[in-house]
């Protein structure tokens, strides 16, 4: 840990991921679009001063503002560029040598009468080597000239951003005869002189000339692809320009996936209050624990001399034990949230960009599948989608999604489309599970609703407070929460139709089907009426929950993407439970689900359907078009998987305990990955151990899984306390929760006002 100035790392060190992706040491680089570049550089004047290599950098830089610019004009002359829409001026000034002419131009900017550029990028040396045939006298003169220029650049650095670009190495085999004297040995000597002289008079000052040395590292990897051995290939120039843009713009634009040069965000009022709360919880738990230890020593069992019987200490009252459990849970949670904050808000640990390769995705997939098959056990029951099987299903899906995220596989469209099916399958289980519960149990009480809502939302609410992120940022939890409420409303609204009622009269089945048709109609209407959808969720305080970046478009997009799959889950549950009730399926151990002929036909259709969907998803050319079809066709692969998994009796009667273990904490794994496994809000990868990628993944994964498991236990413990079964106590708790969220909304409004 060398401080939080990641700009120094960005300008001086890094490595290539693959052939074209540059990874700065310790931080993440944002890829700027031209609209973002314009917003950052509005009303700015940028000057590039130097030789032909600086001219190349100039062209790559202005192409970030306007990609249509062509490299034309006098190569050995000044080149102006202006974007009038954003009032941006970028000039290239032809000064191929560090001499009196360059000094005079730089000096003019230090005088009060001339407007200073906001950014100055300078550098030159190869012309001096070429003109003077690589003589030592030329190097001596270069040192004298740069010594005279250095104080002027340091003076400009007090009010402008000044960069000195070190000379890139050359590929000597490709150099023309007129450039053979430009050797890497000479270039190193010139660079060494520049580094030693620049900032020599301002070592302890904050205003320094920034030495742009990273270009040398990039050139070392790519100069052999140069056309003439001197000038960098276009991809390398573009990387240098993007680094320059990150150095200047990240602190202004604050992109999520651009951690380089970004200062640590200040603590908000809500974060400070959360910190105080967790601190008091830790202190309170330690005090109670100390008191209990003292009481235990005093009441320690001792032998009665007369009777020889052991006297037992008095048992603590339930109130004290409940308070202790509460404080113990918040104590652990406080320590865990501190780790979250240090990982993804403080500039303590390094972050790196993702880089996708087929091996980084498929090799871990094969590895976990082998592990999963190795841990095979018999199920307690052999019903379709029994508890062990659904936990297993959630577990392997979650592990695949985690590998998808850390490997950056979203850039590979076939993998993206299959992962979309896995997310849809989670929502399918939401529809299936909650419909089955309400249909069989007929329990529409407040206790059940509060338990589900608490378990789904507890961690996300805490993270919204601690990490200063909106609720919609953790999109999956709002999605399953809203769908749970929709399922509840559909079945709880009069007339309440449950299995017990339909046993007496089969006509109630048609009543339930009518409810489901009404639900499908509402879903269809909202999916094709973005305006109506946005109006519903733009009302305060719903807007506070579902807005992201000032609008609810992201929420509409996420909801629309899997809009039918919960309905499909409910319909499947209804059909399956009806078949089960009328004994039309066989769920005995080792028995196929249907007769042999029907089972074989369904199994064949399921395998063909499964493979057909995979072929279609793998042949997708456009993400937008495939996303349009996904809501209607994703159920094909989900149903095919369910039938393949459940029709054969043996397959239905075994499960993987390895996957099932992860399935029990799948929600916590999905949410925790945002900050303590990935980094920069899922855009990058957390680096706890720099320089050892595989070892880093092993260590961060172990901590991440342990934390997710611990949070799952904390949530279960707190759910018993916060959501009691007694209705009067539950009502009081609900009033407290309403008061808590009212206070949260008030503090959030105060924060928003102070930010504006």
TrEMBL record:
In the record, biological process GO terms are:
carbohydrate metabolic process
Domain NXPE C-terminal positions = 22-92
First-tier enzyme category under EC: transferase
This protein's source sits in the domain of life called: Eukaryota
Q: Which reaction does it catalyse?
A: CMP-N-acetyl-beta-neuraminate + acetyl-CoA = CMP-N-acetyl-7-O-acetyl-beta-neuraminate + CoA; CMP-N-acetyl-beta-neuraminate + acetyl-CoA = CMP-N-acetyl-9-O-acetyl-beta-neuraminate + CoA; a ganglioside GD3 (d18:1(4E)) + acetyl-CoA = a ganglioside Ac-O-7-GD3(d18:1(4E)) + CoA
- Please report the stretch or stretches of sequence annotated as the Cas1p 10 TM acyl transferase domain: 253-734
Any one GO cellular component localisation term in the record: Golgi membrane
Q: Tell me where the transmembrane regions lie.
A: 269-291, 355-375, 395-416, 446-466, 473-495, 507-526, 561-579, 599-617, 659-680, 692-711, 731-750
Its localization reads: Golgi apparatus membrane
Q: What is its EC number?
A: 2.3.1.45
- InterPro entries per the UniProt record, alphabetical: Cas1_AcylTrans_dom, NXPE4_C
Keywords attached to this entry: Acyltransferase, Glycoprotein, Golgi apparatus, Membrane, Transferase, Transmembrane, Transmembrane helix
Topological category with respect to the lipid bilayer: Multi-pass membrane protein
Give a GO molecular function annotation for the protein: N-acetylneuraminate 9-O-acetyltransferase activity
Into which family does the record put it? Belongs to the PC-esterase family. CASD1 subfamily.
Tell me what this protein is called: N-acetylneuraminate (7)9-O-acetyltransferase
Organism listed in the record: Pluvianellus socialis (Magellanic plover)
Q: Which gene is this protein's source?
A: Casd1
């Amino acid at each position: 840990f060398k401080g939080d100035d990641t700009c120094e790392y960005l300008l001086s060190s890094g490595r290539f991921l693959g052939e074209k992706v540059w990874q700065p040491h310790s931080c993440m680089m944002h890829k700027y679009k031209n609209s973002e570049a314009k917003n950052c550089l509005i009303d700015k004047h940028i000057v590039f001063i130097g030789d032909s290599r600086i001219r190349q950098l100039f062209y790559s830089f202005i192409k970030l503002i306007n990609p249509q610019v062509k490299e034309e004009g006098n190569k050995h002359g000044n080149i102006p560029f202006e974007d009038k829409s954003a009032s941006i001026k970028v000039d290239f000034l032809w000064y191929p040598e560090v001499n009196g002419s360059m000094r005079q131009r730089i000096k003019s900017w230090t005088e009060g009468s001339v407007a200073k550029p906001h950014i100055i990028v300078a550098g030159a040396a190869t012309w001096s080597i070429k003109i003077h045939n690589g003589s030592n006298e030329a190097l001596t003169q270069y040192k004298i000239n740069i010594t005279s220029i250095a104080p002027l650049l340091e003076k400009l650095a007090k009010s402008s951003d000044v960069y000195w670009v070190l000379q890139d190495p050359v590929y000597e085999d490709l150099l023309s005869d007129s450039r053979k004297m430009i050797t890497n040995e000479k270039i190193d000597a010139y660079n060494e002189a520049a580094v030693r002289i620049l900032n020599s008079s301002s070592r302890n000052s904050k205003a320094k000339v920034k030495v742009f040395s990273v270009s040398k590292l990039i050139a070392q990897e790519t100069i052999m692809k140069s056309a003439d051995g001197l000038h960098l290939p276009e991809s390398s120039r573009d990387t240098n320009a993007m680094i320059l843009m990150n150095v200047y713009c990240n602190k202004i634009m604050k992109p999520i996936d651009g951690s380089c040069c970004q200062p640590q965000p200040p603590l908000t009022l809500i974060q400070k209050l959360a910190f105080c709360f967790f601190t008091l919880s830790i202190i309170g738990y330690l005090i109670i624990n100390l008191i209990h230890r003292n009481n235990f020593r005093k009441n320690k069992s001792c032998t009665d001399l007369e009777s020889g019987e052991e006297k037992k200490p008095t048992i603590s009252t339930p109130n004290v034990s409940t308070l202790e459990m509460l404080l113990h849970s918040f104590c652990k949670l406080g320590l865990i949230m501190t780790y979250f904050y240090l990982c993804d808000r403080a500039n303590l640990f390094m972050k790196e960009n993702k880089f996708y390769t087929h091996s980084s995705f498929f090799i871990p997939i094969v590895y976990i599948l082998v592990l999963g098959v190795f841990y095979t056990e018999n199920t307690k029951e052999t019903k379709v989608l029994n508890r062990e099987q659904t936990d297993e299903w959630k577990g392997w899906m979650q592990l695949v999604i985690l590998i998808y995220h850390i490997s950056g596989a979203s850039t590979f469209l076939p993998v993206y489309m299959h992962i979309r099916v896995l997310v849809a399958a989670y929502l399918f289980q939401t529809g299936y599970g909650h419909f089955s519960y309400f249909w069989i149990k007929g329990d529409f009480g407040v206790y059940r609703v509060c338990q589900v809502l608490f378990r789904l939302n507890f961690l996300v609410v805490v993270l919204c407070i601690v990490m200063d992120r909106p609720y919609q940022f953790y999109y999956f939890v709002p999605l399953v929460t809203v769908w749970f409420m929709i399922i509840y409303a559909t079945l709880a609204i009069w007339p309440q139709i449950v299995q017990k009622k339909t046993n007496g009269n089969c006509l109630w089945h048609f009543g339930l089907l009518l409810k489901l048709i009404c639900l499908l109609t509402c879903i269809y209407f909202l999916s094709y009426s973005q305006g109506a959808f946005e109006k519903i969720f733009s009302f305060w305080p719903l807007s506070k929950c579902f807005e992201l970046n000032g609008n609810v478009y992201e929420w509409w997009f996420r909801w629309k993407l899997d809009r039918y799959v919960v309905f499909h889950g409910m319909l499947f549950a209804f059909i399956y439970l009806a078949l089960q009730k009328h004994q039309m399926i066989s769920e005995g151990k080792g028995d196929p689900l249907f007769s042999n002929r029907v089972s074989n036909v369904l199994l064949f259709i399921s395998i063909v359907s499964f493979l057909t969907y995979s072929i279609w998803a793998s042949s997708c050319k456009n993400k937008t078009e495939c996303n349009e079809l996904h809501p209607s066709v994703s159920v094909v692969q989900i149903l095919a998987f369910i039938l393949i998994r459940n029709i054969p009796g043996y397959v239905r009667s075994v499960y993987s305990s390895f996957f099932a273990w992860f399935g029990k904490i799948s929600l916590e794994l999905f949410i925790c990955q945002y900050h303590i496994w990935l980094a920069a809000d899922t855009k990058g990868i957390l680096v706890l151990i720099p320089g050892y990628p595989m070892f880093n993944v092993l260590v961060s994964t172990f901590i991440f899984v342990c934390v997710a498991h611990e949070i799952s236990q904390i949530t279960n413990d707190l759910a018993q306390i916060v959501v009691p079964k007694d209705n009067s106590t539950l009502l009081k708790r609900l009033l407290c929760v309403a008061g808590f969220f009212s206070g949260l909304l008030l503090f959030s409004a105060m924060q928003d006002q102070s930010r504006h």
